[in-house]
Design a protein that fits this description.
By secondary structure, the protein is α/β, with parallel strands linked by helices. It has 10 helices and 8 strands. Helices cover 50% and strands 18% of the residues.
Length: 222
């Protein structure tokens, strides 16, 4: 079956679920507002610049998660989905996923954001398969450490290759949709790379290589 891969943040979503989760925690009073907001923005800018240390960011972003049990996390995430995420699931993005589903394609979200934040989002799109950065669990609680390879930059390629070894899928006739230059290694691997509302660096690469560029967020394209 054809594999259709989707980045999540600023691709299927009109926004960044990781950054928005942090700001949601600030509004809920679960983290220190000014300092957490400043650090969250600093990491987000590093991500956009392609210089993010994913392990440093994981320790930061997973610290509030590690302090909550699963029941509290689930309750919190339901509110987050309703108030923050669902408004960012644009009709164009939902339609794109449904077009691939109608063709019988195997759907997957592949994202650098941790699975605690992203698994419910993938389910909301009706996407069964998820490759995300996985936090370690100890004694039934999440920790601030990453379990295995982070799903970021070349790590996405590694994680996908590992997934393919355990499934009957291949990259023949595969698609990958992304907005970020961080995903160029994976875009280069698939049959049909498609660029979604790209950042400036990816936009330049896409034009040079004649990759399709689409708008899922009604922001307009350069």
């Amino acid at each position: 079956m054809t594999l259709a891969l989707f980045d999540l943040d600023n691709t299927l979503l009109d926004g960044d679920s990781d950054y928005e989760w942090g700001q949601f925690l600030v509004r809920k009073g679960l983290v220190d507002g000014p300092s957490y907001t400043a650090k969250n923005l600093e990491f987000y800018e590093q991500y956009k610049a392609g210089i993010l240390n994913i392990y440093d960011f994981a320790r930061f972003s997973l610290t509030p998660i590690s302090k909550l049990d699963d029941e509290a996390l689930n309750t919190l995430h339901q509110e987050y989905m309703a108030t923050v995420i669902r408004p960012k699931m644009t009709p164009k993005a939902v339609d794109l996923v449904n077009q691939h589903r109608a063709q019988g394609h195997t759907l997957m979200v592949i994202t650098a954001t941790n699975s605690v934040v992203t698994r419910p989002i993938a389910k909301a799109f009706g996407i069964e398969h998820l490759i995300a950065t996985e936090p370690k669990r100890v004694n039934g609680r999440y920790t601030t450490d990453i379990d295995g390879v982070a799903s970021f930059q070349m790590g996405k390629v590694t994680r996908l290759q590992d997934w393919l070894k355990n499934h009957t899928e291949t990259l023949e006739d595969s698609y990958f949709y992304s907005d970020s230059h961080n995903d160029i290694p994976l875009l280069e691997m698939v049959t049909y790379p498609v660029v979604v509302n790209p950042d400036p660096r990816l936009n330049a690469v896409a034009k040079e290589r004649a990759w399709p560029i689409i708008d899922l967020h009604d922001r307009g394209l350069d």
